[in-house]
Design goal:
The protein has 454 residues and is an alpha/beta fold. The strands form seven sheets. It has a seven-stranded parallel beta sheet, sandwiched between helices. It has a six-stranded mixed beta sheet with strand order 14-12-15-17-27-26. A hairpin with a 5-residue loop joins β24 and β25. The longest helix has 19 residues. 51% of the residues are buried. The mean pLDDT is 94.
């Protein structure tokens, strides 16, 4: 199948160069022009996608070449970018930075190369002048087929930009176009915590900040040049990825609030496409689970920040205990897993699972892993595998032993509490990394629905 997706990638020279600021500023400016904007994030990040979604009013999807084959990645790009005037793809880390120190595997560069998407390089200009050209030249020559077609200078003054833009044009000609700049905007800074930016829902003045950023982008970024570059992107060719279609609908409750907000939106869409109704609820605010549900999905997030409020909501905790004891199929990833344990830092939780959670003070078992099932469970048979990702500071005294997690280095460990109706563990996974996991979850929900009808 062929998809014509106007698109550009905003890639950074390094983490901290301002690519998220540039991405959000340009997205909001284009939305303000009345354009339909698609949004994507390279890699396994949840938080940046939430900012994208707040801006465009629609989901932002992940493009990850660890989770996906190239065909699946291109399929999801085409599927989620359909009917958009332009799709903005935000890179991960530095442009060439992959899943290891000396590899481009799963880097923004690999996504750009695989999808033939034009790249706009975001260069931090604070404290630099002509050296910016050396940075650009290095990125242009390190690897072939890098797709770099433009550059935006971040943290650049209005006084410096005209001279720097002329120098870029003189040095690189038509190969790389200067597409504007953003000056320092301290009033628009987005706060961070150990997993990256704070979540979009936690920024009380986010709308005002985004509008100020968009107004600046309208003044000093060449939005028409970005649109022209996106319109010139080659079509995306791929084979269709087919999901099973079930005639038996199910209702799956999904926790969505400030404590539980880390989801791959394509996971939820996959369940919808198979026939599920996704029913949102809040473990913080609601008294009980939604009525007439056949599945439960507790995503990641920051339950540790809301532990007392979660613990005080005794009716919700009792509702979840009862549902799991009745055998409702349940996926609980990272924060959701923590919620089901005995306690978080001594504060009682749902107490469905053994173990208590504590702050390890540093990233714990960070990065991509291969999960291999040690025994049959809700999601797969013994020996089946899926790529997953861990990114957390907290740990549990009883992390489970249903899967073996392994890294390319040879390091491995046990994880995941599993039964024929439960997956609960720190690793997050994407259904499109192994669609059988989604299929098995859905079929368990159908089975549970039949049991409840008896």
């Amino acid at each position: 199948m062929e998809n014509r997706i106007p698109r550009v990638i905003f890639a950074g020279t390094n983490s901290g160069c301002g690519k998220t600021t540039v991405t959000c500023s340009v997205m909001q400016a284009l939305v303000n022009r009345g354009l339909k904007v698609g949004a994507f994030k390279c890699g396994p990040d949840y938080i940046d996608t939430m900012f994208h979604s707040r801006i465009i009013g629609a989901k932002s999807a992940n493009l990850d070449l660890v989770f996906f084959t190239k065909n699946t990645l291109k399929y999801l790009l085409g599927k989620n970018g359909a009917d958009r005037d332009i799709s903005i793809i935000e890179g991960v880390m530095g442009f060439y930075d992959g899943m290891g120190l000396t590899t481009v595997k799963a880097s923004t560069y690999e996504v750009a190369q695989s999808t033939a998407s034009p790249v706009i390089l975001v260069v931090g200009a604070r404290g630099a002048a002509l050296s910016i050209l050396a940075t650009i030249q290095g990125f242009l020559t390190l690897y072939p087929d890098n797709q770099i077609r433009g550059v935006i200078l971040n943290q650049c003054s209005a006084m410096s930009y005209p001279a720097l833009a002329r120098a870029i044009g003189e040095r690189f000609g038509d190969a790389v176009r200067p597409l504007g700049f953003l000056p320092p905007m301290p009033d628009c800074a987005l706060e961070s915590r150990h997993l990256g930016l704070v979540t979009a829902a936690e920024v009380t003045d986010l709308k005002e900040k985004l509008q100020a950023m968009a107004a600046q982008a309208e003044k000093t970024v060449d939005l028409d040049g970005i649109l022209a570059l996106a319109q010139g992107a080659d079509p995306v060719f791929c084979e269709r990825v087919i999901l099973p279609q079930y005639h038996e609908p199910v209702r799956i409750a999904v926790a969505r609030d400030n404590a539980f907000c880390f989801y791959y939106e394509d996971n939820l869409d996959a369940l919808r496409e198979m026939g599920a109704e996704i029913v949102r609820f809040s473990p913080l605010e609601d008294e009980a689970l939604p009525a007439n549900i056949q599945g439960l999905y507790l995503g990641g997030g920051y339950p540790e920040l809301y532990a007392q409020a979660l613990s005080d909501n005794q009716t919700m905790l009792k509702s979840i205990q009862d549902a799991i004891h009745r055998g409702i199929p349940c996926i609980a990833e990272c924060g959701g897993f923590m919620y089901l344990t005995q306690a978080i830092q001594g504060i009682p939780m749902a107490q469905v699972l053994p173990g208590t959670c504590f702050d390890n003070g540093k990233l714990t078992r960070f990065g991509y892993v291969t999960l291999e099932a040690k025994r049959d469970n809700l999601l797969c048979k013994a020996g089946e595998k899926i790529m997953a990702h861990e990114f957390h500071h907290w740990d549990c005294t009883e992390p489970g032993d249903g899967f073996t997690a392994s890294k390319p280095t040879g390091r491995h460990w046990d994880c995941g509490v599993v039964t024929d109706r439960l997956y609960a563990g720190y690793p997050h996974f994407h259904f499109y990394a192994n669609l059988n996991f989604a299929k098995n979850f859905y079929e368990a929900c159908i089975q549970y629905k039949g049991e409840q009808a008896l």
